[in-house]
Amino acid sequence: MAACIGASRTAITEPSPLSCDPNRSQIEDQTYNYVKIFRASSADCVSYVPICPDRSKTMDEVDLWLKMQEEARYDVEQEPVLSNYYYNSILSQGSLERALANHLSMKLSNSSLPSGTLFDVFQGVVVEDKEIMMAVMDDLRAVKERDPACVSYVHCFLNFKGFLACQAHRVAHKLWSQGRKVLALLIQNRVSEVFAVDIHPGAKIGRGILFDHATGVVIGETAVIGNNVSILHNVTLGGTGKACGDRHPKIGDGVLIGAGTCILGNIRVGDGAKIGAGSVVLKDVPERTTAVGNPARLIGGKDNPIKLDKIPSLTMDHTSYISEWSDYVI
Questions:
Q1: What is the pLDDT averaged over residues 110-115?
Q2: Nearest partner of 302 among 322, 319, 318, 285, judged by Cα
């Protein structure tokens, strides 16, 4: 299962734009649909390439692979010493699917696990399941749009271990869902060793995901992550240590999770919520609210929490809540 959240893309209807006026009157919750991402029309809204219901009409999708090849040629012109690396990784590959399978197999292989064996596994899965490649392209655009350190699509594809770990997980999850659990767990182990990202193959992850830096991310077996979620390094989506079965967090669409956060137990973080860095979350977090601290508490209080107008995973704003946190003193 490549993208496990929400309905099929052809069943999604175009959302209505959200107002960005912070002084507007109370808005009903149903007007916020974080499954559907829009291109902001107001200057104070974050710009984002929309995930289009009709992918066949999205020029960015059609041209993404050609764009990556163009970027690769430009990089080789700037740094000829990288010509062999770029040729083997991008320029000699016939498709994004083949390039991804090749790059992951080279990264995750070792002396007892040949790259050719891994290539056959990855290539077979990504060619068979087109949903995985749709999610891969959504992830590429998410990283390029949200991470200012990302200078190009090919830079993300080749060098960002959070992106690569996520794509390896998509393959492992597909194998897990097919009952090929030994192979899925092997891929999980290699990803953990190579990228320092430990995602159980049973976890379900949506599209448009940004794992920023990604070092130390741990995601448990029954965790579910929605669409258009941004997660920083040293984040744990884990169990409480005493529960069995469905025991891991459920993360809604458009959520931003700051660095060093622990979210534990079978709890729900609502759509469009923000979790401040270093927080420990043990209870449900309502949608469009901000939770900070250890143990985490809602900005504005649990009886009347302050509601967010913007999608935090897209704005990547980690500090807007500080002005409302009255005990923050230097």
A1: 93
A2: 285
